[in-house]
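For the sake of clarity, the format in which proteins appear in this thesis is described at this point. Each number in the token line that follows is a code from a learned vocabulary of backbone shapes. One such record is shown here in full, so that the layout can be seen directly:
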Amino acid sequence: MKKTLAWAVTAGIAATCTLGAALPATAADATTSAAVTSTASPGAALDTSRLSPEVKALVDEMLANLPADWQERREAAAAQYGIHETQWADLRNSIINPGDHQCGDTAFRDYATGLRTGIQDQDLRDWLDVFGVFDIPTYDALYFGSESKSNTFGVNGEYTNELTSEGKDLKRFWDINSDDIQLVPMHGREVFSSPQRVARVLSLMFGIKNEPVVQRLAQFVISLVNADPVLQGGDNPLFTFNAFAFSEKGDPNPAGISDRIVMGDGILQALNVLGLGDNGPRSVLAHEFGHHVQYEDSLFANTTLTGPEATRRTELMADGFGTYFLTHSRGEALNAKRVLDTEKSFYQVGDCSFDSPGHHGTPNQRFAASSWGASVANNAANQGHILPSLKLDKLFEAKLPDIVKPDATN
């Protein structure tokens, strides 16, 4: 990917469109037709005639004000900024045998699926997908967000103190240059309550410079988000269901975005609903900071693995690094059993996409990586000593074959 963006959670709900090739965002004056092909459902045409009259009018106005190549522009922007975890349909370069591993549906996936199916107007949901509306809070946090004392985390600010404090602890704990890493929240309703914020994201997504046009589009988007009460004006977890680390380190064409960790309200809501609100948010943040350790130590490139196995390695490493911090006496000093009990449930987000370049590891593998991190912290002869990150990496590389070994039972 052009930008190095590591996703903590990809349940396939916030932005389910599978990306095609990033096409040049060339200018065009013509408008699109009223029926377009959804990339979320290949081959399925979305027809405005199925919408309610009020929503149809808004969608038709959107289509009339967008350039003819708006879908290509949206996909090009997503590729440029790493908004989506790219999952190419024809990429099959994994050598993992799915039959070797335990993998199945989880409560986390059931919750994620319920968010999508819970929207009353499924045609409206599909159009929001196609227009990229579920991506707008992500763009806002990634491109325009910044660390500030006034920032809050969680829909009601309930995680502000916990995450802000942990962010400082993480910087003190790890032996990397971390002064420039910003901790940024991702909110939904706050963004969709501001025509200006929506407009600047739409301008970025579609390359539209005409201010009156982009302002009209912003009003249409806000009206669409408010058209279904289940969307909660943008506070539905669908809009902010993710957390990620971002860095342009080594990028030949940087956009000038600072190193950051973005924490979405939606993932924090999910953790709370599933009974993981105690240590879950801390685990997410510690995992994402683990990615920044990888950025600074150039650990992404320090491997001969390719494709899904390369991604799995870095994700499992971040799991282990995060738990090492959480359970270390000079980190968060949390009880290892409580942390692992939380993570055993939290890492249900582990996936079975063995042939996807975004493969994060199975639930069992992710839990094994976390258990390894806790054991390194708890079994150390000198409990006050923090291992250098490069030393910890060497220990992880030696343990990785054991973490990913087949575990299926016959």
Notes: The chain has one domain: 39-86+98-403.
